[in-house]
Write a structure and sequence with these properties.
Arc Repressor Mutant, subunit A, globular, Beta-Lactamase, single chain, 3 domains, alpha+beta, 5-stranded antiparallel beta sheet, 4-stranded mixed beta sheet
């Protein structure tokens, strides 16, 4: 297939494709092996869904009630793009066969619009405002997979991980802040198998680009921004131009952004490679390749960035300093360059995670604690689970599940009778 993000080749039989993928889906659930006929993007999503223990039956959880939803989405950046979504997708959303949905970076549906009959049908699988449709909670689906892959994608019928969703086909595209490159959410169209065509994918991609342009026109701000949380390859945006960096270049840019005064080659080499012996030519070669990518942004003697760089790391730190823990959690999409072994990056990564955890443990807000436990990096954080248990009323039924998880983790860590603090790190 020429475009791996499209669900089917032109002329393919949807019914036959559905039967074939459904058999592959059943085989995967039974044995964990993905048949070669399954698209790579879908196979990877199935594996992520299985690793996250997403339900293969059942409804997505609703995380935002009416009052919380109204306050949250009114202040969300994508609220300003809703006129664009309605203009470009509004007719489709009212034709009796489709829904238009917009979600935030966590996969929570903020707007779901369309014909009342189609909406009632979708409500049976909790495709409603306030529900969380990321892969972790709803399995493979267009908005959730678009967020995970950071790319527009179609998900066709039986490609959905959750069997309750397999009668639907959807196409979604991620949305970014044109100035910073940060993920804002995704826009989605959901309907029947007729959506498995190049037109639906092109439509949501064009809609996402139009919305991003609209938001950029609203701000009209230029600058240099670096997004590196939850990503192995950082995203650099210079005056609206986006550039995905390689892993070593991502490490260099993060380290230089933390040292606006500049770093000598020797010091930068230690932060990148540690104390092991490394020839100076190795670093010079990396810096030469990076300079070809970013141009005059990178200066030498010492190595430094010619312009101030805003990073999602510093945004989270600023929110923590001012006590805006909810905003910090919104921006924190995962550990800093999680696969990096560079000593300087590892120290920054550990320091930020420690600050976030300390803030959670001090604030002791059950919703925020629960939010941390529902992430890949917090699901086995015993100290947070223990804190969550302690914040809930003693005889509340809601206490049972986190208590059971905490007990399981204490046994797994060999800490029965010990302080949960011993399990941190």
């Amino acid at each position: 297939m020429g475009n791996p993000w499209l669900a089917m080749e032109s002329g393919a039989d949807p019914a036959e494709r559905t039967r074939t993928v459904r058999r592959a889906h059943a085989a995967f659930l039974a044995g964990g092996t993905v048949a070669p006929l399954v698209r790579r993007v879908v196979a990877e999503s199935w594996r992520r869904s299985a690793d996250a223990r997403a339900a293969c039956d059942g409804a997505a959880p609703v995380e935002l009630d009416e009052a919380a939803l109204r306050a949250y989405r009114d202040g969300h950046p994508l609220a300003r793009a809703m006129p664009v979504f309605r203009e470009l997708l509004g007719a489709i959303a009212q034709d009796g066969a489709h829904l238009m949905a917009v979600c935030d970076p966590q996969g929570r549906l903020l707007w779901v619009e369309g014909h009342p009959g189609v909406r009632r049908s979708a409500e049976r699988m909790n495709f409603v405002v306030g529900a969380r449709w990321d892969e972790r909670h709803a399995g493979t689906n267009a908005p959730g997979t678009a967020l995970a892959a950071d790319h527009a994608v179609q998900i066709f019928a039986a490609e959905h991980y959750n069997r309750q969703v397999q009668r639907w086909t959807c196409a979604a595209a991620p949305l970014h802040d044109a100035r910073t490159g940060r993920l804002l959410g995704a826009v989605d169209i959901t309907g029947g198998n007729h959506l498995a065509s190049p037109h639906s994918l092109a439509l949501v991609q064009a809609t996402a680009r139009a919305a991003e342009a609209h938001l950029a026109a609203c701000t009209r701000q230029l600058g240099v921004c670096l997004t590196a949380l939850g990503r192995d390859e950082a995203l650099l945006v210079v005056d609206g131009k986006r550039l995905r960096l390689g892993r070593r270049h991502s490490e260099i840019m993060v380290l230089l952004s933390r040292h606006p005064e500049g770093l000598t080659g020797e010091r930068l080499s230690v932060l990148l490679y540690g104390e092991r012996e490394t020839r100076p030519v190795t670093l010079r070669a990396e810096m030469s390749r990076l300079r070809k990518l970013v141009g005059p942004l990178l200066e030498a003697r010492p190595y430094r960035l010619a312009r101030p760089v805003e990073t999602d790391l510093t945004t989270v730190e600023a929110d923590l300093t001012t006590g805006e823990l909810t905003s910090a959690l919104d921006t924190y999409r995962g550990p800093l360059l999680p696969s990096s072994e560079a000593p300087g990056v590892r120290r920054l990564r550990a320091a930020l995670e420690d600050r976030l955890r300390r803030a959670l443990l001090v604030t002791r807000d059950p919703d925020q604690l629960r939010r941390w436990t529902q992430t890949a990096w917090g699901e086995e954080d015993l100290e947070i689970w223990e804190a969550l248990v302690d914040t809930l009323p003693e005889h509340s039924p809601a206490r049972a599940a986190p208590r059971a998880t905490a007990d399981r983790l204490r046994v797994a860590y060999g800490l029965a009778g010990d302080s949960p603090a011993k399990a941190t790190g």
